[in-house]
Sequence to fold (435 residues):
Amino acid sequence: MKNRAWTTVLILALGHTVWGQELYVNAEAASNSPRGVFRLRAGVMGDEAGWAWQTRFFYSLTPRWMVSGYVSGDFDAGPGGGGLYLKYRFFNRDGPHRHLRLAAFAEGDMARRETDFQAYLTGIRHGAGAGLIATYLFDRTAISGTAGGYRAVSPPGHGGLDGNLVPFSASVGHLVLPRRYTSYRETNLNLYFELLGLGAADGLRLEAAPAIQLIFNSSTKMDLAVRLRLADSLPGERTGWIVQVALEHYFFP
Amino acid sequence: MRMIFTLIVLWTAAGALLVAAPVSASLKVDGLTCSLCNRSVHVAVTKLDFIDTVAADLANASFTLTFKPGQEIRLDRIARAVQEAGFSVGALTLRLQVAGLQVEEGLHFPIPGAYLHFVEMRPQTLDGVVEVQLVDPIFLAASDRFRWAARVSAECYRTGRPAACCPIPENGASSRIYHVTR
Fold:
């Protein structure tokens, strides 16, 4: 039972592994994909409890509006939950090889299983939330911050957390290769470091999440990431590390 | 001798008819930093029906666009395509094939589907392939828009449509007016 609960945590953590044009592995950037671009992401996530799967789509209705949805499951118990995410980019300032973007988002999630603090921190949720994102990109480096509020409610028939939460993140990404673009076929190598947190009335959890990302043919990317516990004063037990592997493809209109 | 004279006359007349045909454009895009972003813009402008070819300079976030001969060239749609890809036009430079084009401040010159309004121009004669830069706000980086808004006082600069300052025929009353300089 405990293993299943942790597997569920991993499933929905992966469900929130999203990226914008800043390509973060664990946080959503303020940018949106181009209008009409459909992105499909599939991945697995694991720790000592086992492996889970997740598929997620992203679709940009306009350059300002983007919608995303996901379905997650584990290899033993099948689908375990899903959700929708809507983002509105309300500020954009572009310059040569740089931009500043601000966005607001709202999300709603449903879980078919019991939830807890770790689940909410990493993505398994039952409730709704909203927040703000600020992303600044200059030359080969991008920094981004996200803060919001989330109203968690117990999944009907399963139980779990019920209260107000404050998820937040700070992310840095750097383009390592190529040193100079000459072709769309060049493989890109990006390095990331993210701090992921969850505040609640009875504690705080903080994680460090380094990642490597490869982009092939300017249309397919692969993420390899690990999430490591830095501090945790929330009630209950949680895993100390999570490994993530994901593949995502752009379908241009 | 008479034939040579006739050929010279025909060649001159043909040159006069072909003045200011846009052949290509150089598009600089702001906000681009990765090949995925570049490709998004590339795909968006390639789909425009008056664009013939698109060549990308990835390192400099710029694109060279060639136009299909005889097609109406709607430059606004280039800017809109860039915006819908999630970015902004930093600069748009138009290359014109001209033959003895006399330009001066305020000249309005027709291109397929629109007029070019020359601003901040000293009188000169243009020959061959010449470059002109679009200075309408939609084709400028944010940092340049205020500067050009202060420098161009023509009423049509604000609307992009013919105004009292535009000496163009009545049948061009609804034409798009693009403002260019060198």
Summary: Residues 5-19 of chain B have pLDDT under 50 and may be disordered.
